[in-house]
Each structure stands twice: as C-alpha cells, then as structure tokens.
Q: What sequence folds into this?
C-alpha cells in the first residue's frame, strides 16, 4: 500500500497562542519577536500584521517601519513548548510515526490508521476539530501521497485550511505553472539560479530536465524528481538522541567588548546547556564556543573532551576556547556540546565540587553562582529553574549587561 501522509501546520502559532490567552489582541497586528528598539527579527506575526508586509525572519526595524502601530511582544517559548506538547499528544493519536519540524509543524504517517484517503480525510478533519476544541487554536492540514505534496497541500488554503493531493498527477497539475520556489529545497539562491537560466516555473523544469541536472548536479536531480511529483521519503520519527549538538546562545542588544562580562555570561549559558542535555539524558564529548563579532563575522572554536558532562566542565572548556580567540567586541556568544552520548565518564552532580587539581581550583557551581549574584545584585538560589526559561535568561543577561556597564 502506498503511504498516506498528513502535514499539520499551526496558523501563526506564537501569535495565535498569545491571542488565545489575551483576547484583547484579536484582530490587531501582533508581532512576536524583538521589540522595535531592540536588535532582532520577527519570529511570527498575526495575519493582520502580514497585511502590512510583515513576515517571519524580517528585521524588526523593517517591521516597525511597515507597521508602526503594531503590538510588539517578546516570545514566551516555555509557554509555546507546553502548548506544542499538547498538540503532539493529539497528533500522535493518529500516526504510526510523527516527524516534528518545529514546535508547530509535523508530518504524520497515517497509512495504517487511515487505510485509504477517505480515512485520512476523517483523521485530518478530526485533528483540526480537536486542536480547536481542546486548545482554542487553528491549524492547516494537508493530506497527500508524499511529504512534499502534504506540505504543499497544508499551505494551499491557509489559514485554517484543509486540502488533499492524492496522486503525483494531482500534484503536478496543481503546481505546473507556479514559480520554481514552490518545490521543496528550492530556496531563494537556487530559485535565483534557475531564474538566471530562464527556468521560471515547474513546467520549465520539466521541459529542461537534463539541463537542470547538468547544472545543479545531485540537487538538480532531486528538483526534477519533485517537479514530476516523485518523493518517496518516509516520515522520520524524531528522536532527541539523533541531535548532533545541544547549545544555547544569546544576542546582546549592544556590542560587548569586556570579556570579563562574557565569561559571566558563559557560566549561565553552560548551565543552560547542561539542563537542556539533562532533560533528554545526553552528555557531551566536546564543547564548541561561538562568537559573532560586531562586524558580523562569526567564528566557532571546538575542543574534544572526555570530561564535559557537567555545567562546570562545560564552562571550563568554554573559557579555554574564549582565551584562544580574538577578543574584540561581540554581538553574540554561544556554547554547545557535541559528540553526544547517553553515558558520561564519571558521575558528578550539579552541586558537586570540581576537584581535579591538575586542572584548576574551580569552586562548586553554587559558589560560582553566588559570586555572580553578588556582582550583579541577583539571587540565583532557588531561582535557577525560572532563570533558564528562554525569555527569563535573556532578560537576566540583559540586566547584567546594563548593570555591568554602568559601573
């Protein structure tokens, strides 16, 4: 039996959650991301804001020029993750495999549960109904024979849409005269390259198959297959253990040139990374430091280590890497661990003493945090769970930055 795949995509997810929780925002141009006076981009926005030309990924300053009367809010990722888990519990009921693309988007293999496309339609409509009734949110659903077709179908009637594409012929008939960018993997650069070849539509790809494959190589072959409606990819169930790295980064609202302050930030980021990894039972075998300088040049430095299974050890390695780089002003700093494993080299808890005299005389993590709190007038004791919520961590570090540079 051929596969039947559903693609579910929430409608303006972050904005819709905020509107659900604060009905006074309904019908207004709501922009989730940075505030207009901050650095950053639009994470998502309501459909009312999109009427002004605002879209995800847009620089927040450009969004403000287009929509100065919009309502701007920081995202609350902890709330969105909680809602996402509720969504997944609904979706998983109907799927033999679920592949999550983001908090608000997933491919569902319903081949066994649905039996045929009539059954898949019932499942898709039931997902929409339960999502609205149980969570007060709308989603768009596409039902199709392949992942690419299902993704295209879910976008066809947005928002709050439902659409089916049952065969490759149905898919190609739908998109034949659309821009090449409608195809999966054809991003702006590839689309511009195809346009430069005089290939503007999917029909043009079909009529110039050999040329596309010759110029674009392996990617070109994939594109010509998609243009013919061919996509045999399976739904790949997400497993956090498949991650290649786990990290955390922060963008400062003003460039930072004081590396003593950056060292303080690295402590909090290292703790955050340890907690993220701990939630899925993974430990790192190496540490990576990422910096983006004020001139927008980004660098990464990595160091293998058999002993970076706690926040203190991640922090220690990050400091070593920091000492090896050009210490000019930065706008972003990040820490991650890689070579992930379910095993760690030796047992040590968050509040154990790091006692390797051959390395250095690091204090316990709680002492390090106590010293950090004294420098900035913060009390971390008993508040760490709150601090490492996404928005709170950002606000904490920004508070620290402002206080540090007022001295």
A:
């Amino acid at each position: 039996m051929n596969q039947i795949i559903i693609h579910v995509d929430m409608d303006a997810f972050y904005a819709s959650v905020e509107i659900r929780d604060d009905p006074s925002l309904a019908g207004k141009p709501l922009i989730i991301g940075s505030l207009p006076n901050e650095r950053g981009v639009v994470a998502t926005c309501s459909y009312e804001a999109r009427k002004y030309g605002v879209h995800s990924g847009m620089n927040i300053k450009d969004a403000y020029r287009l929509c100065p009367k919009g309502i701007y809010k920081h995202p609350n990722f902890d709330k969105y993750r909680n809602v996402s888990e509720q969504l997944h519990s609904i979706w998983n009921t109907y799927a033999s495999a679920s592949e999550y693309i983001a908090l608000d988007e997933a491919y569902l293999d319903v081949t066994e549960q649905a039996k045929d496309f009539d059954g898949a339609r019932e499942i898709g409509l039931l997902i929409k109904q339960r999502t609205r009734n149980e969570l007060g949110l709308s989603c768009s659903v596409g039902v199709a024979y392949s992942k690419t077709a299902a993704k295209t179908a879910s976008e066809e009637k947005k928002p709050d849409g439902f659409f089916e594409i049952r065969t490759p012929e149905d898919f190609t008939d739908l998109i034949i005269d659309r821009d090449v960018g409608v195809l999966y993997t054809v991003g702006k650069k590839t689309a511009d390259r195809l346009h430069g070849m005089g290939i503007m539509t999917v029909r043009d790809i079909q009529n110039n198959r050999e040329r596309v494959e010759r110029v674009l190589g392996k990617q070109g072959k994939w594109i010509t297959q998609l243009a013919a409606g061919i996509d045999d990819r399976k739904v790949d169930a997400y497993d956090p253990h498949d991650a290649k790295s786990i990290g955390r980064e922060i963008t400062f609202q003003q460039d930072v040139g004081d590396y003593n302050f950056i060292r303080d930030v690295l402590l909090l980021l290292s703790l955050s990374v340890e907690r993220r990894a701990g939630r899925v039972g993974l430990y790192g075998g190496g540490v990576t430091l990422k910096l983006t300088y004020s001139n927008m040049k980004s660098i990464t430095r990595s160091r293998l280590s058999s002993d970076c299974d706690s926040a203190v050890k991640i922090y220690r390695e990050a400091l070593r890497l920091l000492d090896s780089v050009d210490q000019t002003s930065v706008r972003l700093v990040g820490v991650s661990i890689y070579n992930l494993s379910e095993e760690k080299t030796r047992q040590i808890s968050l509040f154990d003493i790091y006692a390797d005299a051959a390395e250095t005389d690091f204090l316990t993590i709680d002492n390090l945090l106590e010293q950090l709190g004294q420098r900035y007038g913060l009390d971390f004791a008993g508040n760490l769970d709150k601090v490492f919520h996404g928005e709170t961590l950002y606000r904490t570090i920004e508070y620290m930055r402002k206080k540090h540079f007022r001295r």
The first helix runs from residue 13 to 21. Residues 171-227 form a domain with the DNA polymerase; domain 1 fold (CATH 1.10.150.20). Residues 357 and 363 are 11 Å apart (CA to CA).
